[in-house]
Amino acid sequence: MSKQQPFKKAVEVAPGIYQIEIPTPFSVGPVNLYLLQGEKLTLVDAGPLTEGAWSALMAGLESIQIRPEEIEQIVLTHHHVDHCGQLERIRRISGATTFAHPLAVPYVEIDQDFLDFHDRFFYELYRESGVPDEKLIIIEKYHKLITTFAERSQIDVTLKHDQTIPGLAEWKVLYTPGHSQSHLSLYREKDRVMIAGDHIIKRISSNAFIEPPRDQSQARPLTLVQYRTALQMCADMEIDLALSGHGEPVVGHRELILQRLQKNWERTDRLRQLLQDGEKTAYELNALLFPLLYEQELPLTLSETLGHIDLLKILHQLESREVEGVLYYSL
Questions:
Q1: Which residue intervals define the domain Metallo-beta-lactamase in the entry (predicted)?
Q2: Are 303 and 209 in contact (CB under 8 A)?
Q3: Closest of 163, 168, 191 to residue 38, by C-alpha
Q4: Cα angle vertex 41, ends 97, 13, to 5°?
Q5: How far is it, in rounded angstroms, from Cα 196 to Cα 174?
Q6: How many CB atoms are closer than 10 A to CB 191?
Q7: Most distant CA atoms of the chain, gap in Å
């Protein structure tokens, strides 16, 4: 058995902002939490519900002489379990007020009615996409991921775009959906610092993950379109430093965003090429776009594929026909 690596100390990455790196059991690797000093001591994100994540958070706080009881507020960038899983454990100790986008609430609360709808949504989406029946077990696995690495908690205050965060007068909320419907970023204008969550990451392109709408009567969100729009909003802003949910900080955000947007169009062009020899389902296109990843990372890769199908639909470059509940796409 390999010897466990020592936990990292909290690092001051900008004035009054400490980064605490937390291990996760996921392929994305460690997640970054941020401690903000202001009128109220505020933690941004919570990490997954694992003992390793908890120990790393306690060690990071201890390295800057902060006790968990001193945390007064917790802001979630989004509801994915690597960012919110141990929210309740921190809240029980600190009594902190919790903040998030309204669309994070049913995930954080582990609302059973919503999660039942969540499972039905993905079952219908995957069947429509041509996913083989034997692979639909991935829906149950994803559901289990939520309940394994997160604990039911609560959101006390919901946040909206362009508002100031209570207790953090210098910080403004940005709604940056795409990677998640509940995704928020935080911006401090005085020194042009952005806490970007999973919206802007240096080493990997954030997956525009498809999620169900909050209202069952609505169509599913066009997540890649949302993601591109939110990226373009950030490209128009003066940002000197973007602090990401994973990996190192980003300097030169406009160049990175331009690369990501261009990569989108390259993949859309690839989709057009794949359709030149005849119609295909989303699952078949997914296997061709991501031959090495599509089986073990189906929810991520299929979201990416459907996002590019959405772009082609918006451009009126794609047609579809339904055969026994499965959609087949052609140019």
A1: 30-246
A2: yes
A3: 168
A4: 130
A5: 9
A6: 12
A7: 63
What Å distances lie between residue 148 and 80, 98, 217, CA to CA?
12, 21, 29
Question: Helical H runs in 129-203?
Answer: 137-149
For the CA atoms of the chain, what is the radius of gyration? 20
| Beta strand spans in the chain (E) | 11-14, 17-22, 31-36, 42-44, 73-75, 97-100, 157-158, 164-165, 168-175, 184-188, 193-197, 241-244, 319-323, 326-330
- H and E: helices and strands count for the chain: 10, 14
Is 281 in contact with 130 (CB distance < 8 Å)? yes
Mean pLDDT on 226-254: 97
3-state helix, strand, coil in the chain (%, to 5): 40, 20, 40
Closest CA to 305 of 322, 328, 281: 281
79 within domain boundaries: yes
Total residue count of the chain as it appears in this document: 331
Helix (H, G, I), strand (E, B) or coil at 309: helix
* 322 found inside a domain: no
Structural domains counted in the chain: 1
Is residue 288 one of the residues assigned to a domain? no
Closest among 13, 16, 10 to 170, alpha carbons compared? 16
Reported as a single tens digit per residue, the pLDDT across 171-198 is: 999 999 999 999 999 999 999 999 999 9
Query: Which long-range contacts (C-beta less than 8 Å, at least 24 apart) are formed by 51-54?
Result: 52/23, 53/22, 53/23, 53/24, 53/85, 53/86, 54/86, 54/89
pLDDT at 306: 97
Q: Range of 166's domain?
A: 11-111+140-268
The enclosing domain of 259 has a CATH number of: 3.60.15.10
